[in-house]
Amino acid sequence: MKSMLLVIAVALCVSSNAQSSAEKANGPDCSGGWPTNMTFVHMKNAGLVDNSSIDFSKTKTVRLVSQKVGKDLWRQVYHVTYTKKSGEAIEAIAVPDASTEECSMTGVDVYVISRHLGGKDD
Description:
Blueprint: H1 2-26, H2 34-45, E1 60-70, E2 73-83, E3 89-95, E4 97-98, E5 109-113
């Protein structure tokens, strides 16, 4: 039993160090946090969505890129997808700056994707 606990503890340490190294290289992954929430706020303020029309359990946020722009500061780009209860997807690109201390170092620029071209649905 002690050897199993030791193996688990070592695995957690290795995993934590790998995550820490990745975060230092690429900045924090704020998916599902600040960029997702602020994208919804911007879209709601624009009249594109409201709380009652979205199935939040289907919301997806994927970090596309993270570029270091200063000491402990990264400019990041996220693809955010909200799904309406009707099944319609509303997609946006969110661009915030983040640090290892905080995902909300700046506001979030939001670009609504109106249509995909050249994809599987075309």
